[in-house]
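Need residues for this backbone.
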């Protein structure tokens, strides 16, 4: 599927399994952060929406304004962190590289790379909207 030309209807009908949609204040800023820090693919970028690719998996960014009338709209906090308690794992991303780029891109390193007992080296990075990204690789 060509993410740059697919219609909204065709894209929506193609989604299967688990889906993630992050509501963000500024789609362009969030997409730039994800691309710069984690090397994620950004498609169909606009002020309101972006398709984000990580390997063969995709998720979406939507601006707050696209959720007018949606039940989540009234629950959005005015200040981050928005994703309090949620960890978004990127299992095939080098934590050392991501940490080196995070702060210059507007993020905050919550925990530097550390080997964990479950066999991964992980780092925790908060993005500008307050979502916690956990980047990891095998020890």
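Answer:
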């Amino acid at each position: 599927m060509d993410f740059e030309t697919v219609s909204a209807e065709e894209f929506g009908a193609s989604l299967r399994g688990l889906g993630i949609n992050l509501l963000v204040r500024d789609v362009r800023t969030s997409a730039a952060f994800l691309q710069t820090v984690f090397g994620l693919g950004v498609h169909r970028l606009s002020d309101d929406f972006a398709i984000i690719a990580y390997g063969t998996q995709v998720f979406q960014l939507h601006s707050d304004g696209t959720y007018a009338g949606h039940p989540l709209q009234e629950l959005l906090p005015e200040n981050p962190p928005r994703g309090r308690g949620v960890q978004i794992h990127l299992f095939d991303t080098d934590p050392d590289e991501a940490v080196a780029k995070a702060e210059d891109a507007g993020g905050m390193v919550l925990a530097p790379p550390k080997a964990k007992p479950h066999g991964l080296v992980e780092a925790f990075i908060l993005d500008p909207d307050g979502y916690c990204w956990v980047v990891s690789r095998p020890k």
